Amino acid sequence: PAAGSLAGKHVLITSGPTHEPIDPVRYIANRSSGKQGHAIAAAAAAAGARVTLVSGPVTLPDPAGVETIHVESARQMLAAVEAALPADLAIFAAAVADWRVADAASEKMKKDGGALPPLSLVENPDILATVAHRPNGRPGFVVGFAAETQHVIDYARVKLAKKGCDLIVANDVGGTGVMGGDANTVHLVTVDGVETWPTLPKEEVASRLVAHLAQKLAAAKAG
Ligand code: C5P
């Protein structure tokens, strides 16, 4: 295969936010657009990979040539990811909700002029950590994202270890609208060090990341 090629590889990608139901008509969500994850899926397909994209609710079209599985909640995302394994490379770009409502109501909640409804929250499964720590069937290379507003690289190093992944793509989401925006400034954090890229369009971050990862997979195979 040509340099930078992912021909013959299965690449699994998560993208977008998750929606966590409160009742049948309401949910908890976040500002993720899915632009970065979807751009990575398109770039991996362009590099020749078979790509499975597990996407939360987004307004983007399914990328051409990518098998896209649509989910809403974190638990559905985890189930779809596990069903899509094995993979040579997994990239977890979704902004998964940290919490869900403990007992989502099965009927629409009514405001009855009385007490405010309490929302008790429970922690969602960590999809990245679950997959990266699998004793069997762990993807050959696992990439996480870390969106932070301060101490971006320090927090990314902690996350790399805690989640058990091979690379963290850290980005500063403080200030200028990265979430929902078209550009991204990223730092590639591994146990070996940090590589900082200039601010680039999300499509360009995606194609550079795919080329970088194709090289890593080739090197791992050779070494
Ligand atoms: O802990 P934090 O949410 O900052 O970690 C971000 C990374 O972990 C991202 O790669 C995200 O896709 C992944 N993640 C996940 N499942 C969660 C929370 C985060 O896969 N429940």
Write the layout of secondary structure elements.
Blueprint: E1 10-15, E2 20-23, E3 26-28, H1 35-46, E4 50-55, E5 67-70, H2 74-84, E6 89-92, E7 99-101, E8 121-123, H3 127-132, E9 141-148, H4 152-163, E10 167-172, E11 183-184, E12 186-190, E13 193-196, E14 200-201, H5 202-222
Parallel strand pairs: 1-4, 1-6, 4-5, 6-9, 9-10
Antiparallel strand pairs: 2-3, 7-8, 10-12, 11-14, 12-13
Helix pairs in contact: 1-5
The structure holds cytidine-5'-monophosphate.
Structure characterization notes:
The protein has 223 residues and is α/β, with parallel strands linked by helices. It is 28% helix and 27% strand. It contains five helices and 14 strands. An eight-stranded mixed sheet has the order 5-4-1-6-9-10-12-13, sandwiched between helices. Strands 2-3 form a two-stranded antiparallel ribbon. β12 and β13 form a beta hairpin. The chain is globular. The model has no long low-confidence stretch (mean pLDDT 93). Bound molecules: cytidine-5'-monophosphate. Cytidine-5'-monophosphate binds next to α3 and β9.
Question: How would you briefly describe this protein structure?
Answer:
The protein is of the alpha/beta class.
